[in-house]
Design a protein that fits this description.
Rossmann fold, six-stranded mixed β-sheet, globular, 3 domains, 33% helix, 527 residues, alpha/beta
């Protein structure tokens, strides 16, 4: 079997692959896209870091490729959908750079607090301006962490050693788990209002893009300090520059940017109290070795049939069983994504019920897909089929699974219930005659929904003209309705309307829908 390593990988990782007599390992770095497209047809596995872009075209040219291993967390350089459609397993190494990134975050906090980069540059010029670089202590300060996953947790542990009080906002973390760490769980608005330092540790998603912008800066203490070692785009960079100039933000430390390499014309480069590093979060000798060893081991084991770990797109099943369960796995992930975005509040419990013919199979892959779907909108590439249940457990989310022999009107039915600290929501789904996923129940409403693309889910009073008004409102903004369904408790009572639309719904349009007559609540869901 032939393995292509197209980005630099430490020798410790290469050694693991080269020691297997069945493998031929070729290291060819800095390949141009057309060169990679030409040679990929001969390889069974591809190992990359972030430089190689594994596009749809590259995957289409891969005739033998079975495995793609990414040495690192993000998968934004791999076309996951194209790989999945072609049956290629994509795996990453989500834990390899945890300590490295956490330590870099603390380094940035310290550098920011004591003006170390500026003082260093001044001293090397032959200056001695002690008063110019007056710093602040971390002791007694409040650190707000947005996203308390693996890296956020390690940052919190280190912050405690400096005598800091730690607040965190993470919709998937229970208060019990947070309290066990000594962290106070708060809502995002409260975190912004109370924190002296704010650091972000979430993936970049539609929900987290510009999660800190002008409106959020206006909530913060004067003199707050901002740190981003997660993903560029989480912080609105022009808004940050304005907040620094206005004196709201005393300083910022950025390791990641919306455009990388950073634009030489960026205003971030013009402000002395902003510390910048070129995406160094994982750039330690130990982290590079860790991710290289981990990616080598998971690629080796997958090729040799020893099991699949850290798969972003594939549960572990025998081929024949997978053929039967694949459409149900797809259904489950969509059900999870749907309800995970619909439910409000901090997740506490997931209750899964299977009924019908499906119960004769091993249902663990379906439960994995449901949990992955629930967590994916927030955790994005850090959650996969293999680690979904573990990540839920880390956040104190209980998962309960049950089989029901009760007769249903469907051949097989899968129901997911999410309990949060604010509400309980339910969705149920099945497969159509041509194996396509269908949502047939939302809470107490019977519906017929195709879970795909952009969707508007509105709870409203069952009054004449609701659907017409929504159609007119969307039509005015040139948004086409692809499909529509309606379910109600009783005539004139509460009901639910679900619309599949062909174009994204902007925040402005969403606000107009919310203000429409007889509309009780509205959510935009993206599957």
């Amino acid at each position: 079997m032939k393995i292509l390593v197209s980005d630099p990988l430490s020798e410790e990782g290469l050694k693991i692959l080269k020691e297997v007599k069945e493998f031929q390992v070729d290291v060819k770095i800095e390949l141009k896209p057309e060169q990679l497209k030409e040679i990929i047809k001969d390889y069974d596995a591809l190992v990359v870091r972030s430089a190689t872009k594994v596009t749809k075209e590259i995957i289409a040219a891969a005739e033998k490729l079975r495995v793609i291993g990414r040495a690192g967390v993000g998968l934004d350089n791999v076309d996951l959908e194209a790989a999945t459609q072609k049956g290629i397993i994509v795996m990453n190494t989500p834990a390899g750079n945890t300590i490295s990134t956490a330590e870099h975050t603390l380094s940035m906090i310290l550098a920011l607090s004591r003006n170390i980069p500026q003082a260093n540059a001044s001293t090397k010029k032959g200056e001695w301006k002690r008063s110019k670089f007056m710093g602040v202590e971390l002791y007694g300060k409040v650190l707000g962490i947005v996203g308390l996953g693996r890296i956020g947790t390690e940052v919190a542990r280190r912050a405690f050693s400096f005598g800091m009080r730690v607040l965190a906002c993470d919709p998937f973390l229970s208060r019990e788990v947070a309290e066990g760490l000594g962290v106070e769980i708060v809502e995002l608005k409260e975190l912004f209002q109370q924190s002296d330092y704010i650091t972000v540790h979430t993936p970049l998603t539609d929900e987290t893009k510009h999660i800190i912008s002008s409106k959020e800066f206006a909530l913060m203490k004067k003199g707050v300090r901002i740190i981003n070692c997660a993903r560029g785009g989480i912080i609105d960079e022009p808004a940050l520059v304005s907040a620094v100039k206005d004196g709201i933000v005393a300083g910022a430390a950025m390791d990641v940017f919306e455009k990388e390499p950073i634009d030489p014309a960026s205003d971030l480069l013009k402000l002395d109290n902003i510390v910048l590093t070129p995406h160094l979060g994982a750039s330690t000798e130990e982290a590079q070795v860790n991710v290289a060893i981990e990616v080598a081991e998971i690629v080796r084991d997958a090729l040799l049939g020893r099991g699949i770990r850290n798969a972003a797109n594939f549960p572990c099943l025998e081929a024949e069983v997978y053929k039967v369960l694949e459409p149900y796995i797809n259904l489950c992930e969509k059900l999870g994504r749907f309800l995970g975005q619909l439910a409000e509040g901090r997740f506490q419990e997931l209750n899964i019920t299977y009924s019908g013919e499906i119960i004769k199979y091993d249902l663990s892959p379906l439960s994995m897909a449901l949990v992955k779907g629930v967590l994916s909108p927030i955790l994005k590439e850090t959650v996969n089929f293999i680690n979904a249940a573990s990540l839920a457990k880390e956040r104190g989310i209980n998962i309960k699974e049950a089989k029901s022999s009760k007769e249903q009107e469907f051949v097989s039915l899968i129901q997911l219930e999410i309990k949060t600290d604010k509400e309980t929501r339910i969705v149920a789904g099945t497969l159509s005659a041509n194996k396509q996923p269908r949502i047939v129940k939302i809470d107490n409403y019977s519906v017929e929904v195709s879970p795909q693309g952009e969707m508007i889910v509105a709870q409203n009073w069952d009054k004449p003209g609701i659907i017409g008004n929504l159609g007119m409102l969307l039509g005015k903004h040139n948004i086409n309705i692809a499909a529509m369904t309606f379910g109600r408790e009783k005539p004139g009572g509460k009901s639910v309307s679900v619309l599949n639309v062909d174009s994204p719904i902007s925040p402005e349009i969403l606000e107009k829908i919310k203000k429409a007559e007889n509309i009780l609540s509205v959510k935009v869901i993206n599957i």
